[in-house]
Amino acid sequence: QVQLVESGGGSALAGGSHRLSCQVSQYTGMRLYMAWFRQAPGKEREGVAAITPAGTTSYADSVKGRFTISKDDAGRILYLLMNSLKPEDTAMYYCAANFGVGRPALADVQYRFWGQGTQVTISS
Fold first, then answer.
1. What's the DSSP call for residue 99?
2. Per-residue pLDDT tens for 37-48?
């Protein structure tokens, strides 16, 4: 059903900024609950930020005040703006989506549809 494709991965220096994008297929974005997750080598997958169809957001404590999740007006593109980057932000980043979650949840079990991931590497 829903297909998600991330883009914008790459390398950056600590203290800098970077933006990731996720393209949503089938014009279903306005109905979707969406989120960004990340996973570093040897660590469990971590919920980073989430957004509801109405625009309500939630953030992990580790990125609060530095990262911003948003959508375009049609809900077709999901963004993650990352500011004040730290080396510990280095990870594979994934976008995820599902219908009817009810909240901007940060638990991976709440999401059915996943992108392929894009690597972000931050050096000091």
1. S
2. 999 999 999 999
